[in-house]
Amino acid sequence: MQTSSNPIKGVGTDWTEYSLINDHGMTVKFLNYGGIITTITAPDRDNHFENVVIGFDNYQDYLNNENYFGALIGRVAGRIQQGHFMLNGQSCQLPKNEGENHLHGGPAGLDKVVWQVELFDTATSAGAILSHTSNDGEGGYPGTVKLKVCYRLTNDNQFMIDYEAVSDQDTVLTLTNHSYFNLSGDLKDNILNHEVKMDSSQFVELDHDLIPTGKILSVTNTVFDFRNGRKIVDGVDSTDQQNIYAKNGYDHFFIFDHQNEEQVVVTEPISGRMLTVKTDQPGMVMYTSNGLDHTLALKERQSEKYLGVCLETQSSPASLEHTGFPSIYLPADELYRQSTTFSFKTI
Ligand code: G6D
Considering 178, 195, 252, 268, which one is annotated as catalytic? Predict the structure, then answer.
């Protein structure tokens, strides 16, 4: 196992890119800025390592990362309607950074802070602890929250993200990582031919602003049923109003039927790459980059719609408005913990 760090010149102040490298040559690179994952290399069935996540060519572009490429997301991943919620009878108003709503922690989200980074490596893993203290009122949220995120790469080609946080006041919190995966390798194809298998029989209904309506829908007899495997293109070709609201794709919170087992399996038939996701979270937003256009210069090529799939394991901000949703409430002094493992294999 190896780790390294390289200062990034001429961009943000004190930006550094860190590398985690295992004994097979698999590499994860990330920035202290936003914890942004810039590169993950994984082998195809011929053991040919290629990049499997979307990242900018010019790091200056991460200063305007409106698609949240690779970023840590919080304090609340997802949308909060009108940027408003009640907490212990108190009205909380967050900044609105997407029309009338609050998205992904808003303009002062965790994707825009410079995290403190401490590297480590052992015989079986290489990793980093990213730390940040989000002060009371930062981003509009109550409570001072001490955050620690551990990125860890193992010799089993697993990339594990462990989150811990504690607040000095009652608050709300649900964190995730916003990497866009593309298993074709070096973005040589889009994700429409990727097959997804998912342990979920329910998903959260959205309105035309992608705000949860409060209804939880069954996946049965819809293109949201991934229990037996389905290609992402099914959601693109679909006439289901939910896919149309998402700009012809998926952008939905899926509720897992079970915890802490491999809830998601993504395969790409030509390269033979397979990515599995195991998490202790109640669900995951799957977003098929329906909002991407062709204007962004990525490492390998120009961006385009459907070039990556986001697997945002998290709880549901809909719980702020509706009952029956996985909660994002965090009582004072209670430890928030989340663990998600991305395993890279081949078929
Ligand atoms: C769009 O609706 C999607 C979000 O889910 C995604 O996280 C964001 O783009 C990057 O707003």
Answer: 178
Longest Cα–Cα distance of the chain, Å, equals 58
Report pLDDT digits (tens) over 284-339.
999 999 999 999 999 999 999 999 999 999 999 999 999 999 999 999 999 999 99
Our answer on whether the CB atom of 324 is closer than 6 Å to any ligand 1 atom is: no
Q: Which domains does the chain have, with CATH numbers?
A: 2-346 (2.70.98.10)
| pTM (predicted TM-score) | 0.97
Which residue owns the Cα nearest ligand 1 atom 3?
A: 251
Q: How many whole angstroms separate alpha carbon 255 and alpha carbon 120?
A: 34
Q: Partners of 275 in the beta sheet?
A: 266, 344
Query: Atom of ligand 1 at shortest distance to CA of 312?
Result: 7
Q: Which residues contact 323 (CB under 8 A, 6 or more apart)?
A: none
Three-state DSSP at 189 gives coil
95 lines ligand 1 (CB under 6 A): no
